[in-house]
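Minutes, project check-in
Item: structure for the 136-residue chain
Input as provided by the requester:
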Amino acid sequence: MADATLGASWIPGAGAQFLDGTSGEVITIGNACYLDSATNTFKKAQCDGTLAESQVVGFATATVISGAHLRVQTQGQATVSGASLTKGVLYYLSATAGSPTGVVADIVSTNYITHTFGALTSTTVDIKIHVLGVVL
């Protein structure tokens, strides 16, 4: 199973909560984001960088350029058109910046573990972020 693609549109659902801020780089709809404390901007999270880069705060609800306003969904359900999810699978932050993966085996011994969401259907996620902050 490859990294998940989170589609072309984002429709918040039950229990949706958000953070608003500024993007620190080009961010695509569905990218997992962390808040860079040095620049106070959202950037794409990844499990094989620093601890800070693995601390997902939410998922981008739109595609934006660097310096643009960005809203990230921090919890709750969302329907994502064109998503490539496997129903019932729990997804974790991958080594590909901004991407979740459903393959725990892809997370290697030098990666930080961050649970991001569960797939309710092939196009619906239930975001429940849990940053463990430990290397596997």
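Outcome recorded: The mean pLDDT is 94.
No further action items on this chain.
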